[in-house]
Amino acid sequence: MKSILSRVLLLGGFTLVALVLFLPSTPISKKLPSFWVDNIPKIVLGLDLQGGMHLVLDVDRDKAVENFVGRLSDSVEGSLKDGGAPFISVRTRGTDITVKYLSPGAVDSIKQIVSENFSNVLTSGVVDDKAVVFTLTEAEAVRIRDWATTQVLETIRNRIDKFGVSEPLIQRQGEREIVIQLPGLKDTKRAIDLIGKKAVLEFRLLDDSGADPYEAERIGAPYGTELLYQSETDPSTGIVTQTPYIVKNDIIITGDLISDARMAFDARFNEPYVSISLDSTGARIFERVTGKNVGKRIAIILDGNVYSAPVINERIPSGQVQISGNFSYEEATDLAIILRAGALPAPVEIIQNVTVGPTLGRDSIEAGIKAIVFGGILVLVFMLIYYKASGIIANFAITLNIIMLLGAMAWFNATLTLPGIAGILLTIGMGVDSNVLIFERIKEELKAGRTPRSAVNSGYNRALWTIIDAHVTTLITALVLFQFGSGPIKGFAVSLSLGIMTNLFTALVGTKLAFDIQNDKLKVGRLSI
Asked: What is the mean pLDDT of residues 137-161?
């Protein structure tokens, strides 16, 4: 009696908890108290049910290698200068760094300095026509290519997390592709701009030689400078105006020295801007540069576009920089997100862009619900017809199984996909299969002349390990699907895994409890099975 009471309390407690977790994810949530709905995790609809965006990005890993070699050549040049090696120039081409010299006597010192500082990433060097050519090692090139894809993934994940998309899927596919799914997203253009912007931030001084930028458009910029543009769009007419600036090639500060970036509003004009905080190194550099160049202009450049070119009025020791440029609220917010998340280490190309509309999502949900309802009804009717009164017990267990499965999905804040609905249907099938195994064993025991109680106990004992074996092997398969599958397949694996565990509980505990109540409390003399 105590055993039955404890099992009733256990089963009732799990069912109550499952209902508390599940109901806020249903349409009935509108009628539930707000404290209940707001504080309970919910089942999230996947991209195929909710609609949204599906992107596949291709990472230009070779460009990442080129960028690395370019930075490495600067370090090589600096080391050669510090070491006093006589050389003319340091140039890059592909994965090669070429150091030109005048005298053959410079070769040994050049190779020695490079070997001492860069032997782990560069070959020993080949002498060719008054130049020493160093090549990036293949192992280092492979490492950079792999790192580029991983770093792009993490940078995009940081951007999207700050963008506020619920339950995004961001994962690597193969060596150079990244799959992004953004359920429920409406502003696709804004998302693409946020994801694809490389976000290379540079601070450079404007040319102070007196050259006319508009004249430079015709004859070219002076040596050691570059012609860049500031684009401004008139919000009323949509006309884009481009203003040329001649900026020096020397880069003062880059985006990797930023510690924080926030959107803020100008107190005077109430216009949004981006406030940047530099780290300690960046703040020291900025203080030194602004102190030496009071009265001159400094250009703030993002991906080759000049956002602003303010005059340096005084030395700035705080490390606080302001970027303004007639931003809208969304533009300033997105720019701050991009700068906080960091620049992409390599360019990316969108090779697949699929937008799933909400109508398709609704149709999928309705079709899935119909499949569950009609399939469930047919199963319940079959169990009632074939197993009579015992079919009621089986249907009770199947219903509990679905309730507990949905409650578990809500608890884990799981994403429900169309394959996930298929996993729920498969769970119903496994629940029926478990009950069929048990009931057939009980019928065999009854035919052998056992009493109802003895037949039930023997039937459960004989079917126990068969049911456990079937569920464990299916669970292993589901775990493998979750580990190696993509988003929709993972949705199937999640619902199936949780369904397997809840089904074991309801089939072995729920139905056994019902039979024990029937045999011990109701004292039935004959089982209807």
From this structure: 87
